[in-house]
Amino acid sequence: MRGGSGFVGRELTRLLRDKGHEVTLISRQPGPGKITWGELESQGLPPCEGAVNLAGENLINPLRWWNESYKKDLFSSRVDTTKALSQAIAASSSPPHSWVLVSGVACYKPSLTAQYTEDSEWTPFDLLSRLVKEWEAAALLPENVAKTTKQVIIRPGAVLGRDGGAMKQMLLPFWLGLGGTLGSGRQPFPWIHVSDLAGIIVRALEPLADTPPSSSPQVFNGVAPALNTNYEFTKELGRVLRRPTILPVPGFVMNALLGSERAVILTQGQKVIPKRTLESGFQYNYPDLTSALKEIVN
Ligand code: NDP
């Protein structure tokens, strides 16, 4: 698993180990239970049943200024790692039965009204959607390998959990009573609890029972079925924390702080429906904001 040391990776590793699986992390840092990128390139993929890529430079890294070098790192940390892993799978003498890429919902154009499912057509329209295009294209396996290795792409919304992601940066200001809506607050806020995302990844890793893998990847939207706006999220987080949320942050401030190209992930949003995820029978532990935020805060 690449990116396994991160926020989602730690949750996934815990869940897989609880189910009795052995997990090897591919990391920039050597260590027990890990291999490095260099080792992956020189020695190939160790025998395994499934592979997942979760690597990626943090998009909201507060320590980095939004500039060309940061954008380059956002792309290379995702596209190059995905390419390295898909090439290692293709070159393996015994490829895994599943290959899962976790990308994002930035491929769907922000809108207050449009609803997107996994079947929605999309073409890149800005920097982040171009990133998703290149990222997902890098995951594609050659046709002969795709006959035996199931390819899955999971597109999560904001991943909510105690130990990382957006919540880690939001909890303190909200605790201090400094939380508020971002931009207009009317924008959709697609989200998922980290343990549900880990559950969706685990299901994606399971081998297909009867049908042979298809040459194109199966896509699953990794979002909770509840459709919420940023206003609803803000008010619910304030309610669960018992803190006021009366200080809205205007869109132009977000643009100035983060750079408009990435502020869009907070000031705009998409109504994303997890149609195929629900059809697959996946049972969410946290289908609504109240249950997800209570678990995180308590
Ligand atoms: P993290 O920020 O926790 O990072 C995951 C891992 O990526 C790190 O542990 C690190 O592994 C590796 N990494 C970080 N920077 C770089 C870099 N510059 N080059 C290569 N590898 C790097 O990510 P999350 O767990 O939050 O997210 C996992 C994936 O899901 C990411 O690709 C992210 O874009 C995507 N995603 C996340 C969302 C969220 O809300 N968290 C929302 C939508 C998508 P190591 O140090 O071991 O090399």
TrEMBL record:
Q: Which gene encodes it?
A: SDR39U1
Q: What sequence ranges are listed for the domain NAD-dependent epimerase/dehydratase? A: 3-210
Pfam family, any one = DUF1731
Task: Show the NCBIfam families listed in the entry.
Answer: yfcH
Report domain DUF1731 positions. Answer: 249-296
Q: Which organism is it from?
A: Astatotilapia calliptera
Q: Which Gene3D superfamilies does the protein's record reference? A: NAD(P)-binding Rossmann-like Domain (3.40.50.720)
What SUPFAM superfamilies does this protein's entry cite?
NAD(P)-binding Rossmann-fold domains
- State the source organism's domain of life: Eukaryota
What is the name of this protein? Short chain dehydrogenase/reductase family 39U, member 1
